[in-house]
């Protein structure tokens, strides 16, 4: 079966569009998606892009918000600009994502935390956001967060971030299909096509 | 008739994809394109993006070349990576573009200089490149270059760059359709749709 490794950072804006779209598109095309949360910020810092690629440039940020809203509308994705950007802390969220991938609930958890952030202004990574997302998939929040903070699971996130570093990733969402890197929500369709052809 | 202002910098890589595509797409959709060369570098410098958005980040540059080749293949556009990037000087080329827009030959001239650069490695902005592009559209190169360097035409390029600054442009290609800014070759279709609907 064709497959894509989907690397993503919970604090990324455009990643919302992919998270909202990838399940249906991949199902339609019969491509299997491996959900791979990682920490983008350390990788950007190493490459001299410390505050993220957009933050230093006000015109680009203004454009990004407008572009996001237009792209969401074009794809029929519910969208409401959150009151906070970037989110203060996504470490616990990323650890939960990795735990979810190991236990089989990463996809639904991730769809939920992004949807809460981007449609209900329940800021991603906050307790409010994480508890609601975990409860809606039948997880006991305090238990899941405790497992997410186990030494073994912390190590799993580190090692996935290390994997992203080795692959040369510099943004989110990133897709690896048959050894090819695709970056950005607007390359999702191309990555799926690549996965099927190769 | 629907219309788009197409702002572009001759030294930009992804702009090649747009220059190779926009005429046919716009004709098909009945959208009128105003070709507007401007100088991107001063605008990037003002915004702290001095060397262009990609140059400082080797991973992003590597990715850009791969992405360009893949996008060109996807669109059926001839593509061969030029031996020099960025080009040394695009000022005369931009002045010729502005002159061409005033005299009615900007589109064909621009298609030619980009095609020579991106398929025959005749580096954009060099005499070799400009002379061939001008001759192929029936212009006498030395005469056209002299007109391009007239005070009036130099002023026209400055004033178009000033216009780009006022619009908040930070990249090439950029499209302005019914007051909306779209940035990047991968937003060309969306800009055309916007122009038709608004």
Architecture overview:
The structure is a homodimer of 198-residue chains. Chain A is α+β, with helices and mostly antiparallel strands and 198 residues long. Helix content of chain A is 57%, strand content 11%. Chain A is built from nine helices and four strands, in the order βαβαααααααββα. Chain A has a four-stranded mixed sheet with strand order 2-1-3-4, sandwiched between helices. In chain A, strand 1 (2-8), helix 1 and strand 2 (31-37) form a beta-alpha-beta unit. In chain A, helix 4 packs antiparallel against helix 5 (106-120), helix 4 crosses helix 7 (141-148) and helix 5 (106-120) crosses helix 6. The mean pLDDT of chain A is 94. The A-B interface holds A 47-49, 56-60, 62-63, 66-67, 70, 74, 168-170, 180-183, 186-187, 190 and B 47-49, 56-60, 62-63, 66-67, 70, 74, 168-170, 180-183, 186-187, 190.
Question: What descriptors fit this protein?
Answer:
198 residues; alpha+beta; 57% helix; 11% strand
Shape of chain A: globular
- What's the gyration radius of chain A in Å? 16 Å
Low-confidence stretches of chain A: none
Strand content of chain A: 5-15%
Work out the helicity level of chain A: 55-70%
List the total number of helices of chain A.
Answer: 9
Q: Which class best fits the helix and strand makeup of chain A?
A: alpha+beta
């Amino acid at each position: 079966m064709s497959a894509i490794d989907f690397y993503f950072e919970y604090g990324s804006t455009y990643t919302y569009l992919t998270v909202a779209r990838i399940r249906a598109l991949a199902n339609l095309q019969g491509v299997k998606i491996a959900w791979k949360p990682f920490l983008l910020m350390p990788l950007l810092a190493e490459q001299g892009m410390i505050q993220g690629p957009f933050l230093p440039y006000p015109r680009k940020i203004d454009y990004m918000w407008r572009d996001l809203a237009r792209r969401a509308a074009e794809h029929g994705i519910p969208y409401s600009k959150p009151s906070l950007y970037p989110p203060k802390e996504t470490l616990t969220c990323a650890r939960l994502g990795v735990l979810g991938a190991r236990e089989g609930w990463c996809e639904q958890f991730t769809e939920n935390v992004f949807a809460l952030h981007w449609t209900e202004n329940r800021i991603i990574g906050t307790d409010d956001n994480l508890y609601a997302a975990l409860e809606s998939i039948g997880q006991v929040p305090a238990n899941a967060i405790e497992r997410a903070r186990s030494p073994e699971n912390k190590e799993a996130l580190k090692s996935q971030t290390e994997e992203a570093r080795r692959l040369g990733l510099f943004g989110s969402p990133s897709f690896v299909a048959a050894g090819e890197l695709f970056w950005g929500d607007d390359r999702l369709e191309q990555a799926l096509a690549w996965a099927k052809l190769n």
